[in-house]
Amino acid sequence: MRGRHDAGVLSPGPRAPVIPVLTLDDPADAPPLVRALVRGGLAAVEITLRTPAALEAITAAAREVPEAVVGAGTVVRAEQVGAAARAGARFLVSPGWTGGLLDAMAASGLPFLPGVSTASEVVALAERGVRELKFFPAEAAGGTAYLRALAAPLPEIRFCPTGGIDAARAPAYLALPNVACVGGSWMVPQDALRDRDWDRVERLAREAAALGAPSAQV
Ligand SMILES: O=C(O)C(=O)C[C@H](O)[C@H](O)COP(=O)(O)O
After folding, report:
1. Where would one find the signal peptide in this protein (predicted)?
2. DSSP character string of 119-187
């Protein structure tokens, strides 16, 4: 993988320790929600392609909140790559990977984070030149102990662990040398989203932004 991927989602640069992972049913929620996250200090956000509203939500957030960097998550099929890019996504995240998906993501020119949960996958992707990876599902797949173990043989790989991480667990991940940032949905609780309590989201985002030495760049 060449080109923009070398600039990467996780390379040093403008910093945020946490990427909020958003799943939205109403695209109208996207702009005020993303604005609240940006106000709290989390400017890079991932909107998952898990709902019919997702592409419209990406479009609305990208257009109405230009100070945010809006990416697409749950990219699991090659044809979703073009749709996400056309909607305005500026980075791509997948819970997993296939050769076809990697080719499509690389061809998009956008930074991307394929998901892995085993050492063999890390080696396979490193062989293809991909060194910035999502570790998913982080807690279920071995958590900080697993990532710490991977750092010894594979020190050049940088991870964004996601899945089961909350404000209490995030600092231990962020303290690892091979972790650039963490992903999670904890700063957007279901009831806050239902009640459109953007002030609460902003508070939780501010707490998340203060959590650790960050280095997500998108
Ligand atoms: O949809 C995807 O592409 C995923 O890989 C799953 C998400 O990253 C996690 O569901 C977010 O993690 P939680 O903080 O546990 O909610």
Report:
1. none
2. HHHHHHHHHTT--EEEETTTTTTTHHHHHHHHHTT-TT-EEEEBSS--TTTHHHHHTSTTB--EEESTT
